[in-house]
Amino acid sequence: MITNHKLIIDKSCPMCSLYGRCFTKMGLIDEDTIVYYQNVNRKIFDQIDDKRAKSEVALVHPRSGKTTYGIDAFMRIISDKKPILKRLFQVKWIYFLLSKLYRFISFNRKVIAGRSVGINERDCTPPVHIPYRIVYLLIAALFTGFMVNSFSALLDAELRVVHFGWREYAICFGQIGWQFFALSLIQPNKRLAYLGNMSTVSIIGGFLLVPLLISDHYIDFSWVQLLVGFGLIVGTMFSLHVQRCKRLGLPFIVSISWVVFRALVLMVMLYFLYLK
Length: 276
Prior knowledge:
elongated
């Protein structure tokens, strides 16, 4: 067990709190190890690189001042009781993959969790890492495109129209481009923060489609029922979108722009499917 150390984590990050509790329950650290970046005492805070600790958890030994960051801190905690894990983590390609995965999650955690900073607390928001953010946007668009494509295939079959597998992917990537342009006109400095939050809303929408897709295998919904279910999901996504825009200090027009894009896409689809 790691003792006499402090693991400094982000108070507003659910993932950070989760692994902190897991480490404690597994007996890897004692109950007093977890402290929060936002309100850790000044003596300990002065021993760490406060900028680095925003993007990588810090495991500090207060007496010596020695600090380990990020994936190295995790590895030290996890392998403390199992030396075989330490040797495994020392394999270069394993260490490389784990470190990249950790940094990818850490740098995007604020747009994933969507939590706001408390009043009179230190801000633990990591800087925007452009490559990791772009990768997150791409993953979100591909995942959402896949899920919505699965749904639209069912809907097109019910409506007896030709299904184009590329259509939903084009819409998802088009949404990113549309909103990027909109934010460029409204608040350019918040483009990547907003697009990250918007992508998280899209991912949530994709997961909300799962029960609908599974249920259809047993119930065989009509096109009306499919549209009602999809409408409820879109309504939920809109509500989440508005909430996240408020946290970012963005005006309601950003959510209107989000809806306008989808409305325009729907009108174009209706034109080519039924009116042309």
